[in-house]
Backbone:
C-alpha cells in the first residue's frame, strides 16, 4: 500500500504546484489589466488565453463588477486557496493514513 500512498502524495504535490502556478498567472493577468497592454504581445495573449475561459465563466455566473473593478480574479484566487487547503491536504492526509495502515 506504500506505493499507492506515495502516488497520492505525488499527485497532491503536483496539484498544489499547478494551482499555485495558475494563481500567479491570474495575479499577472490582473496586474496587466491595470495598464493598457499591447494585445499583440505574446505574453499578454498567453495570459488572456489561459485565464479568460475561467474568468469569463465566473463573470457570467456572478456578474460582480463595481465601478469597472472586476472581482472575478479574486473569486478564482479564493477558489484556488480553498482547493489547496481542502483537496490537496485531504489527499495528503489520506495518503498518510493509507501508508500507516
Residues:
Amino acid at each position: 500500500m506504500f506505493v499507492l500512498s506515495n502516488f497520492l502524495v505525488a499527485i497532491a504535490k503536483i496539484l498544489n504546484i499547478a494551482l499555485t502556478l495558475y494563481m500567479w498567472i491570474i495575479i499577472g493577468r490582473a496586474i496587466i489589466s491595470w495598464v493598457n497592454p499591447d494585445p499583440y504581445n505574446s505574453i499578454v495573449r498567453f495570459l488572456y488565453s489561459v485565464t479568460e475561459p475561467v474568468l469569463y465563466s465566473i463573470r457570467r455566473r456572478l456578474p460582480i463588477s463595481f465601478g469597472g473593478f472586476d472581482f472575478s480574479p479574486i473569486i478564482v484566487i479564493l477558489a484556488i486557496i480553498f482547493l489547496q487547503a481542502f483537496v490537496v491536504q485531504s489527499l495528503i492526509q489520506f495518503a498518510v493514513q493509507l501508508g500507516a495502515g
Q: What stands out?
A: Strands lie at 65-66, 69-70. The chain has one domain: 2-66+73-100.
